[in-house]
Amino acid sequence: MKKSLMALSSVLMLGSVASAQKVTFEEFTLENGLHVILHQDKSAPVVITSVMYHVGAKDENPERTGFAHFFEHLLFEGTQNIGRGEWFKIVSGNGGTNNANTSDDRTYYYEVFPSNGLELGLWMESERLLHPVINQIGVDTQNEVVKEEKRLRVDNSPYGNLFSAVKQNIFKKHPYRWAPIGSMEHLDAATLEEFQAFNKKFYVPNNAVLVVAGDIEYDQTIKWVNKYFGSIKRGADVKKQTFVEDPITETIRATFEDPNIQLPMVVAAYRTPSMKTRDAKVLDMISSVLSDGKSSMLYKKIVDQKKMALEIGSFNYSEEDYGTYFVYGLPMGENTSESLVKEIDEEIVKLQTQLISERDFQKLQNKFENQYVNSNSSVEGIAENLATYYMLYGDINLINTEIDIYRSITREEIRDIAKKYLNPNQRLLLDYVPAKDKAQN
């Protein structure tokens, strides 16, 4: 009876969490194609104005990689009505903060202001869209900024080229094969006209979603959205290319030398389906089973019990078109990459042939409930989630319902999806090793 009461209490508690976390929103589309999502949250006097553009590294010319990330910087240079170098001064001078980020699939800009800065934030984002100044001075300035970022985060950072080393071997046709930071040689070779053409093609209202969230009044916000964005002309329709990879049918072996490391890393990487699929969500759970916490399968056996690795981990890197599932480890002492992979494979086979325990499954469910709550715990997080679910998933309400998909995943699915994707003949084995001469290229 006591267990039944505890179980009932747990069900009621989870139900109340789900209800409390429900995100309400309104949405509409302007005549120029700009989709608008509004979310009201009166808990703090803060507003977020954000725009996500459906352009990322995968939309670039293979001979001009790095453009989308470059524009993440370039579009802060100024507009016809915001002087060069004034953007950040205006934001900070009005008590706000701002930032941007780029992925393979999209670029996201946002400002956070006190609630009395809502109209200012909308005006600034409309200026970025309507009146960007793209000239040689700005291009040259940001070229140096991007080069320094690449030196800091990639070239001189231990394991900084890991994603690039994996993706260039996993993908042969898809633009996911290069990193968003791109090639400095490509950026150096690009003309001003090429940058202007890229802006004209992708930074248009019909390739964007505007999210306004926080301490807002719907009627007033709609008026300001129409005032500042309604007159912007629609751009030409953006046609997305489709790239289909051939299945991996035998182990790919590769080596990458990094002058910034002393300890080798071994990586097993598997190409997986789009983040929009149910399978991708099961793979998210599998990564938690394998390596999330000291009681996880890989950590408990390889790090804790056998002390074969300094670090071990796995994660599902999901993207709009494909995903990449990573399992990695740093061998310790006399252990080799080969011996580490053998142990990893043994644990994956267990996952493919045995059901995880009911106790471990409940722990897994609890972890994902907590992640769901945390992902929508701030208005900034809600704003980005709303934009992402609209643009990349095509379903805004997933912000409320995606957790139900995770809740419905079974132990049997975890076993079957591990068996479907995590096989030796479907993967890359990468030896990520110290450079022999320890010299930078």
Give the SSE layout.
Blueprint: H1 2-20, E1 26-29, E2 35-40, E3 46-53, H2 67-74, H3 87-93, E4 97-102, E5 107-114, H4 118-130, H5 136-155, H6 162-170, H7 184-189, H8 192-202, E6 208-214, H9 218-229, E7 252-258, E8 265-273, H10 278-291, H11 297-305, E9 309-318, E10 322-331, H12 337-353, H13 358-375, H14 379-393, H15 398-408, H16 411-421, E11 427-434
Parallel strand pairs: 2-6, 7-11
Antiparallel strand pairs: 1-2, 3-5, 3-6, 4-5, 8-10, 8-11, 9-10
Helix pairs in contact: 4-9, 10-16, 11-12, 12-16
Protein name: Zn-dependent peptidase
Pfam families: Peptidase_M16, Peptidase_M16_C
Keywords: Hydrolase, Metalloprotease, Protease, Signal, Zinc
Task: Provide structural commentary.
Residues 1-20 form the signal peptide. Belongs to the peptidase M16 family. Residues 36-175 form the Peptidase M16 N-terminal domain. Residues 190-367 form the Peptidase M16 C-terminal domain. With 441 residues, the chain is of the alpha+beta class. The chain is 45% helix and 19% strand. It has helices at 2-20, 67-74, 87-93, 118-130, 136-155, 162-170, 184-189, 192-202, 218-229, 278-291, 297-305, 337-353, 358-375, 379-393, 398-408, 411-421, and strands spanning 26-29, 35-40, 46-53, 97-102, 107-114, 208-214, 252-258, 265-273, 309-318, 322-331, 427-434. The strands form two sheets. It has a six-stranded mixed β-sheet, sandwiched between helices. The longest helix is centred in the first third of the chain and has 20 residues, at 136-155. The protein is globular. Residues 1-20 have low confidence and may be disordered.
